[in-house]
Write a structure and sequence with these properties.
The protein is of the alpha+beta class and about 90 residues long. It has helices at about 5-25, 30-35, 55-60, 80-85; strands at about 50, 70-75. A two-stranded antiparallel sheet has the order 1-2. The two termini are about 25 Å apart.
């Protein structure tokens, strides 16, 4: 894969590995997150993070909406500690 520096590794993870996992798991971000250690208790920012959506805050309490669900986000920039935390 031609990885010689951390910047090469970061680009490989963000541009190749994560999109491949996204396709492999049929857009199920909770599974993609598990590959990257989502849910482990750590003080290091995760590669994949989950944010709950509060539909009531968006639409108000007068509108009947579902639970709001959640959204997942990929970190814009990875650090060596973030990558190391995947394996710990």
């Amino acid at each position: 894969m031609g990885i010689k520096t951390f910047a090469d590794l970061e680009q490989c993870l963000l541009r190749k590995v994560i999109p491949l996992l996204q396709e492999h798991f049929f857009e199920d971000w909770s599974k993609v997150g598990l590959v990257f250690g989502y849910g482990k208790k750590t003080d290091i920012a995760p590669v994949i993070s989950k944010k709950s959506l509060d539909a009531t805050a968006l639409f108000g309490s007068d509108v009947e909406v579902g639970d709001g669900g959640a959204t997942f986000a990929v970190a814009n920039k990875l650090t060596p500690d973030m990558v190391k935390a995947i394996y710990e």
